[in-house]
Amino acid sequence: MPATPRPLGTALPAVFPIGLGCMGMSEFYGPADDAESLATLAHALERGVQLFDTADTYGLGANEALLGRFIADGGRARRERMVLATKFGIVRASGAYERRLDNSPAYIRAACEASLKRLGVERIDLYYCHRRDPAVPIEDVVGAMAELVAAGKVRALGLSEVSADTLRRAHAVHPIAALQSEYSLWTREPEREMLPLCAELGTAFVAYSPLGRAFLTGALDTARLAADDFRAHNPRFQGAAAQANTALVDALGDLARDWGLTSAQLALAWLLHRQPHVLPIPGTRRRARLDENVSAAAITLDAGQMARIQAVLDAHPVQGARYPDAGWAGVEAKNT
What we know:
Oligomer: single chain
Radius of gyration: 19 Å
Strand content: 5-15%
Shape: globular
Largest sheet: 8 strands, parallel
Order of helices and strands: EHEHEEEHEHEHEHEHHEHH
Number of helices: 10
Structural class: alpha/beta
């Protein structure tokens, strides 16, 4: 049965329920393989994926440039099939994970121009404030972003990892098409406030790391993570926390096998069944993994299955923070 498209605000078309997070193609998860990544991007379009998510900080511009190359290779016809999302606000030095934030109107304008150039497009479909600098009023941030819409450089606006209060204030200045935050079987805090508020405002909830940075797939060996892999320094992937979280993943894997699913498919199908305005954007560089992920859009979980998943979650509380200290910069609710 074909997957029903999900809304992405009012200024953008409804899209296939599962998007593609492109970050890992350029940084954080080991060496890049541009040839395989380009093949995966093409395969994603073939499978019906429409929402492609990047940011100017991923690979310090390299990820946007990769997407720009992909778009240029396919011409206008390819571009018209894509909803292209990128972000501004995180400033890093080469080779460093630590970052500073810049939400100043001048920086927003400059960052947008730089992203347009790297992507090779005339307009960004969805432009996010990646992380919020509390020193700059959100009204000023969104006001500057709205000027980009008026100038025809951006179609719709988004925010990432902000509080409910910030989202409400921002939406009063200009409609916010999408709110992006981490949401998965092991990160459920958005259910408290953000998911209900997004439903109220007509804002799509874009769930990044819906597979727990691959931990929830059951296929990740944390002992073999490379030193330059972000996850090697993530509290949830270390020591006793990793052992406890492995027990959770193993229990979920047992359910998946009973139902003829992979662990990744169970995790994504669960998200899609939680709320109709949730859009997961799992990341992958491999076509086989993309096929596995995309197929979750056609999976139906009944009330009994959802209850069994909840019982596993209740029995295995998640251990460890979702970011190391440096990763919390600009995240407004640090308990999420």
